Amino acid sequence: MGAFRRILLKLSGEVLAGGGDFGIHAGRVQALAREVSEVAAAGVQIGVVVGGGNIFRGLSSAAQSMDRVTADHMGMLATVINSLAMSDALEQIGIPTRVMSAIEMHQVAEPYIRRRAIRHLEKGRITIFAGGTSNPFFSTDTAATLRALEIKAEVIAKATRVDGVYDKDPLKFPDAVKYPDVTFLEVLAKGLGVMDATSIAMCRDNRLPIIVFNLNTPGNIMRMAMGEHVGTLIH
């Protein structure tokens, strides 16, 4: 695989918490921004979707008694907070960014407009997609897939705490076996918890590959973007 021209980087909210259970760890966000900026400097166009788990996890006990739609809306707003944090860290090191929200909030972010998003990417701006899909019952994985397809990204780069896709959770089972590559059908049939079934099915139907890799290994985003084999390729 050569270097990618345009990627959609999917980050979990937990990544921004550093070692903490929830919240935003400034040092972790700054380190992440530096890595992403190096990839952008190499000429790769980057769209980013960040989850909201680091903020919403702290509210999860309250969410259990809540209406699902209300809880999902709160989760979407958490992704806006994370997107602004990521944008600020990038801007502080001189990287132009745009935050585009699926939920309109003009004082905070641009509304998501597909053609404008593509224009930002073409101009070398890192474009951060916030607010999920604006619809409840859809995860940020599905939002990432939708945005990747809309902006015609060549790959979804799913950054996680493990170095690929395993037959079971490697953090709990030391005998877990890693797949160097795996098909969409196998992910669905074996229930491999990489992304939710909706996003996997969308990627399969539109032939959009996913690379799952470990974000905690420095330089992995660059290696992945340059086409080196890191993590697991789902195709």
Could you explain how this protein is built, in words?
- With 235 residues, this protein is of the alpha/beta class.
- The chain has one domain: Acetylglutamate kinase-like (Carbamate kinase, 3-Layer(aba) Sandwich).
- Helices cover 40% and strands 19% of the residues.
- The chain has ten helices and eleven strands.
- The strands form two sheets. The chain has a nine-stranded mixed sheet, sandwiched between helices. A two-stranded antiparallel sheet has the order 7-8.
What key phrases describe this protein's structure?
single chain, 235 residues, alpha/beta, Carbamate kinase, 9-stranded mixed beta sheet, two-stranded antiparallel ribbon, 10 helices, 11 strands, 19% strand
What's the count of strands?
11
The helicity comes to 40-55%
SSE order, as H and E? EHHEHHHEEHEHEEEEHHEHE
**Could you say what the CATH architecture is?**
3-Layer(aba) Sandwich
- Beta-strand content bin: 15-25%
| DSSP helical segment count | 10
Here the CATH topology equals: Carbamate kinase
Mean pLDDT over the residues: 93
Q: If strands are numbered along the chain, what order do they take across the biggest sheet?
A: 4-3-5-2-1-6-10-11-9
Category by helix and strand content? alpha/beta
CATH superfamily: Acetylglutamate kinase-like
How far is the N terminus from the C terminus?
13 Å
Q: What's the number of structural domains?
A: 1
Based on Cα principal axes, name the global outline. Answer: globular
Please tell me how large the radius of gyration is. Answer: 17 Å
For this structure, what is the CATH class?
Alpha Beta
